[in-house]
Amino acid sequence: MKMKLCGIFVLLVCCAGFCGAIRCYVCSTISTSNCADTFNPIGIVQEDNCVGCLKLKGKQVGIQLIDRSCLPLSSPVSGCTSGSQHGFDAAACHCSTDLCNSATCSTAIFTIIVIPLVMLLKYL
């Protein structure tokens, strides 16, 4: 009996890292038109073993960019953050359920996410 309980405990510990993993859509409007706000999941890559999903949406001078990705690190709270700087409007949304970044707008650390997005749009 003691050996059975020990075996179950070891099995649970080994599976703990996999049980919390979720799937996220991974795409960008730079390369995939289906990734836009009028999201169409056909042909969109799904990545497994994510801790959270992210959707970034930015717009400057009429050019809109949307990026959906898998987060390897968790955020303490799901939700969205938005802001505007130098004519660039951006929103970053974090969620933690399977394929949740398909929503129109799905929290990430805003400055770490938005700064590279601003730089990318600057060179478009």
Automatic annotation (TrEMBL):
Record's keyword terms, sorted: Glycoprotein, Membrane, Signal, Transmembrane, Transmembrane helix
GO biological process, one term: regulation of synaptic transmission, cholinergic
Pfam families the UniProt entry points to: QVR (PF17064)
Transmembrane spans: 101-121
Domain of life the protein comes from: Eukaryota
Residues in the signal sequence: 1-21
Keyword Nucleotidyltransferase applies: no
Name of the protein in its database record: Protein quiver
Provenance organism: Dreissena polymorpha (Zebra mussel)
Native organism taxonomy: Eukaryota, Metazoa, Spiralia, Lophotrochozoa, Mollusca
